[in-house]
């Protein structure tokens, strides 16, 4: 979920940017003024309370405002996130929003402040007044509005500066440039929210078929080093010939080949929800490489899953697979099967142990039907999405 707040003095172009961002990122627009008017028009309980307070000349209290905002968020679960306009207006409301986000198991990702020189604000609004017909677009009223904005806004901006999520944007630039500057920050923020799964399991545990099915169901990019290396073999490249020779001798492909292919995959994958890595990392060195690759692209591992299948069942599965067109180079004889399983024990199990200490590894029973194992894995994936 992408939650942002947009600030800016009158004339900074906040309304224009709000519309562009809402359309681009499928956000739900939250303006406390609009929400209040809607509640009053529908004569809801909160709307009637607000109407009575306004009728008596009072200001609608934060207690009502926050309930309306919470109601709006919970009633729009299909939204990819929310854009807050005009909230929080005060230091106290900043704390209220923080608490509300925690309660809803989410957070405010960014607060953008469109910075504009006072004289430029006045110039823009006076120009707008020539065509808008608004009585408040005269210089005296404009300067009072600007003073009120800065007096009330500075403490709120400082609150979010202290949290490290405040971004100043030059509002004097063109509409396109302002939108580009905001979008660049948001793309970086979105990349941090990717669900990146590392799927472990001995050869024969079903990682491949399960990984592909999970990727298809949840809109994740399936990264199988085996599949990518096989494509090199099919192309008949020099790299492919080298890979084929290594496979036939039961050896692992060197990291310099694998890393280059994986990084290219990450860089070329746009608009996805995350990755499922199968077959990488296989060694401790590769685990550090993957951490570095993801960090380079502003992301990190979200979940580590290991599919557990007893050794005898693994051997039986691989032996059966060797008699089909899905036969892999390393399972066309019992000797190679055993060697590959031993290699997993000596090289990959230490990686799993490392991740277990750092993140915790979800152990999934790999026995049963494909559907039963898939359901167990799906539960982990869905919990992962809820966490991010």
Provide an overview of this structure.
There is one protein chain. With 388 residues, the chain is an alpha/beta fold. The protein folds into 2 domains: 2-27 and 79-191, Rossmann fold; 194-387, 3-Layer(aba) Sandwich (Rossmann fold). The chain contains 16 helices and 10 strands. The protein has helices spanning 14-25, 32-42, 45-55, 62-74, 91-103, 118-132, 139-163, 175-192, 207-218, 225-235, 238-248, 255-268, 284-296, 311-321, 334-358, 370-387; strands at residues 2-7, 28-31, 81-85, 110-115, 166-170, 195-201, 221-224, 274-278, 303-308, 361-365. The strands form 2 sheets. Strands 2-3-1-4-5 form a 5-stranded parallel β-sheet, sandwiched between helices. Strands 7-8-6-9-10 form a 5-stranded parallel β-sheet. Helix 6 packs across helix 7 (139-163). The longest helix is centred in the middle third of the chain and has 25 residues, at 139-163. It starts with a strand and ends with a helix.
What descriptive keywords fit this protein?
single chain, 388 residues, alpha/beta, Rossmann fold, 2 domains, 5-stranded parallel sheet, 10 strands, 14% strand, elongated
Largest sheet: 5 strands, parallel
Second rung of CATH, namely the architecture of the largest domain: 3-Layer(aba) Sandwich
Low-confidence segments, given as residue ranges, are none
Number of helices: 16
Indicate the mean pLDDT.
88
SSE topology string? EHEHHHEHEHHEHEHEHHHEHEHHEH
Pairing-aware structural class of the strands and helices? alpha/beta
Q: Name the CATH homologous superfamily of the largest domain.
A: P-loop containing nucleotide triphosphate hydrolases
Level-1 CATH class name of the largest domain = Alpha Beta
What is the beta-strand fraction?
A: 5-15%
Question: What Rg is obtained from the alpha carbons, in whole angstroms?
Answer: 28 Å
Extended strand count: 10
The termini sit apart by: 8 Å
In which order are the strands of the major sheet placed? 2-3-1-4-5
**Oligomer designation:** single chain
Percentage of residues assigned to helices: 55-70%
Structurally, how many domains make up the residues?
Answer: 2
CATH topology of the largest domain: Rossmann fold
């Amino acid at each position: 979920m992408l939650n942002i707040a947009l600030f800016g003095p009158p004339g900074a172009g906040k309304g224009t940017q709000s519309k562009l961002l809402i359309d681009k990122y499928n956000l739900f627009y939250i303006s406390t003024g609009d929400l209040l008017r809607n509640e009053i028009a529908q004569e809801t309980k909160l709307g009637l309370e607000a109407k009575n307070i306004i009728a008596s000349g009072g200001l609608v209290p934060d207690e009502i405002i926050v309930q309306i905002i919470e109601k709006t968020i919970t009633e729009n679960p299909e939204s990819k996130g929310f854009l807050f306009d005009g909230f929080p207006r005060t230091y106290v409301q900043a704390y209220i929003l923080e608490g509300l986000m925690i309660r809803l198991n989410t957070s405010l990702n960014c607060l953008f402040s469109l910075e504009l020189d006072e004289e430029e604000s006045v110039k823009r609004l006076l120009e707008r007044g020539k065509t808008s017909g608004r009585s408040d677009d005269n210089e005296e009223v404009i300067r009072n509005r600007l003073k009120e904005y800065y007096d009330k806004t500075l403490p709120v901006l400082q609150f979010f500066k202290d949290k490290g999520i405040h971004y100043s944007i030059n509002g004097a630039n063109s509409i396109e440039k302002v939108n580009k500057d905001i979008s660049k920050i948001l793309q970086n923020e979105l990349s941090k929210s990717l669900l990146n799964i590392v799927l472990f399991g001995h050869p024969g545990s079903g990682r491949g078929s399960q990984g592909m099915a999970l990727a298809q169901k949840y809109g994740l990019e399936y990264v199988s080093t085996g599949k990518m290396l096989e494509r090199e073999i099919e192309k008949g490249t020099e790299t492919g010939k080298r890979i084929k020779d290594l496979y036939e001798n039961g050896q692992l492909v060197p990291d310099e080949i694998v890393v280059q292919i994986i990084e290219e995959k990450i860089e070329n994958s746009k608009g996805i929800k995350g990755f499922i890595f199968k077959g990488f990392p296989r060694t401790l060195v590769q685990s550090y490489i993957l951490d570095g690759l993801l960090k380079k692209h502003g992301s990190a591992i979200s979940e580590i899953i290991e599919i557990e299948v007893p050794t005898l069942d693994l051997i039986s599965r691989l032996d059966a697979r060797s008699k089909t067109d899905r036969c892999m180079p390393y399972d066309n004889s019992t000797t190679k099967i055993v060697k590959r399983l031993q290699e997993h024990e000596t090289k990959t199990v230490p990686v799993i142990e490392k991740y277990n200490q750092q993140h915790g590894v979800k152990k999934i029973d790999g026995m049963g039907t494909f559907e039963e194992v898939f359901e167990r894995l799906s539960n982990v994936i869905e919990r992962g999405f809820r966490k991010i």
